[in-house]
């Protein structure tokens, strides 16, 4: 994981020095993650950790290049940023499918405590032992496992292909250069932190605030409606950009990090609900399987709603709605 | 609807006078409801109103006879109470099936705003017009309508049969006697309200408080588990007994009435969830139908959970859990 920089930064320091130090540190973290990933071989846990730190560093570099674009050589920054966004989204897929399967299986186990999930007809359906998967839940779990494992395997292949591509090697080379020398705009980089970086970070924050204000109201009456997910995903993206900008300035980012975790849960639950709905459209599944997938879908949409309330409680001075 | 008595009652009044006045008023309300029910004929709305006021009066009489048993001729009170409990539960069934169907159809319409409820394969399934029932929801609605209409028709027949029975006529005769003269215990009835009725009402309240304290914690992690519904239904029953006792004493009962409404919603949602789960066990239903019933089940279990939180907010000084 890339370490946030908590050292106090002097407001009168040169903007280029501060941004350069942050970008060099993240570039070093990127290269270390890459080396660990190559060395991890068959160790899945080590490989996951390495991929996570690689993604984190890539996001921090691309986020900082977006926020502080004018302090760098802009055309170089735009090119590298595009490539880093491609890389981190490619790397994210495999992890996302694995995490989605874990989330859905955990939810199914939790839900299967219910005596009302369908059991075989004629059996003591309303008295199943708590924790034992009912037939419908077990079949739904097997179906989701099959579908998401297939998707993860495909994503794994795509990751391997990406990491072997000349496109990736060009990104790695560019980051290796960045680790020793950051291409800066000679004029802007000589300005003071407080005159150059702080106003740019404020722009990122203003963009975030506007997106938060424009969020549709948290509507407990329509938890199953995924139409409103998009603006929330956009807030999640802008919150990350804001957080990395504050991190580059050496500020405490525990609040945006906590709010970001709520929005990560929001995204994960929304995609898990979609996966459950997609699985229910599989032809020729048993009604009990479809029923369990319906319960699972509704459960994950309620998790979406809970994550929205969590975000409001963390991020806004007043809760947006009074929970009933 | 039986009118609660809000006239101030003197603490030094005779217990028998106060209880007698309340019981006579409720007996009169019962007889009026019965007459309206007989006159309503084919007018369903009038018949429903009459049945509701009949049930309310029956519950108030049987509740008061339970709480203030020792102030009345106890063996008479026990007999009448048993018969009134039978009558009001018989009358309640038809209304309950109708209300359950309305609740489930409303929920299906609300849920069908979701673009992720299954639509016919190959159609623009993820872009259905909001409010239009998807195929699965429509089929689930038709199935529930068939099952609950059948149950309601059976309950209607049972009501007609009960109202024509000699058992019912005996109850009606007993209530007619009660409307003019309440059989009281000659000693207890001469005591003062504050010495006799108030302590008995306090016993009912203590019984309620104990049941509330013994409620399982509101566990947002297991909303689908109906194992804990029983103690909540018992609290609902005890809350009614408490409310009618306070009403007999001429006290303001708006808080127990509001808390009782939350527990009514709790009971209705729990039974609607059970009805949805039962419908999903119908043989040979389509997977899309089962899926919609699963979503509906989870939705109603979340309504159960929301009703529990509502009750806590109304009834307890501190919320039992912090909503997330």
From TrEMBL, chains A, B:
The organism's place on the tree of life at top rank: Bacteria
Annotated ranges, domain CHAD: 12-320
Gene3D superfamilies recorded: CHAD domain
Signal sequence, renumbered to the chain: none
UniProt cross-references to SMART domains, sorted A to Z: CHAD (SM00880)
Alphabetical list of Pfam families matching this protein: CHAD
InterPro entries: CHAD_dom, CHAD_dom_sf
TM region positions: none
Protein name, UniProt field: Inorganic triphosphatase YgiF
Organism in which the protein naturally occurs: Streptomyces avidinii
């Amino acid at each position: 994981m890339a370490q946030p920089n908590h050292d106090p930064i002097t407001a009168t320091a040169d903007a280029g020095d501060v941004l350069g130090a942050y970008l060099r540190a993240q570039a070093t973290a990127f290269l270390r993650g890459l080396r660990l990933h190559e060395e991890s071989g068959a160790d899945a846990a080590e490989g996951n950790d390495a991929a996570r730190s690689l993604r984190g560093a890539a996001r921090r570099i691309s986020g900082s290049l977006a926020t502080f674009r004018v302090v760098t050589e802009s055309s170089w920054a735009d090119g590298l940023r595009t490539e880093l966004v491609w890389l981190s989204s490619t790397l994210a897929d495999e992890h996302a499918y694995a995490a989605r399967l874990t989330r859905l299986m955990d939810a199914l186990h939790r839900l299967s405590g219910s005596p009302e999930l369908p059991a075989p007809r004629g059996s003591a359906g309303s008295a199943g032992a708590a924790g034992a998967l009912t037939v419908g839940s077990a079949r739904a779990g097997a179906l989701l496992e099959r579908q998401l494992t297939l998707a993860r395997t495909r994503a794994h292949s795509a990751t391997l292909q990406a990491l072997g591509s000349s496109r990736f090697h060009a990104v790695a080379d560019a980051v290796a250069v960045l680790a020793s020398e950051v291409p800066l705009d000679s004029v802007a980089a000589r300005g003071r932190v407080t005159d150059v970086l702080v106003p740019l970070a404020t722009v990122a924050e203003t963009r975030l605030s506007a997106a938060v204000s424009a969020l549709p109201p948290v509507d407990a009456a329509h938890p199953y409606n995924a139409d409103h997910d998009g603006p929330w995903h956009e807030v999640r993206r802008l919150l990350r950009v804001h957080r990395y900008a504050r991190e580059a300035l050496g500020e405490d980012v525990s609040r945006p990090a906590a709010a970001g975790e709520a929005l990560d849960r929001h995204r994960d639950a929304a995609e898990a609900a979609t996966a459950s709905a997609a699985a229910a459209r599989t032809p020729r599944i048993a009604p009990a399987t479809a029923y369990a997938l319906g319960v699972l879908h509704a459960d994950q949409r309620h998790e979406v709603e809970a994550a929205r309330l969590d975000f409001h409680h963390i991020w806004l001075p007043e809760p947006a709605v009074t929970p009933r």
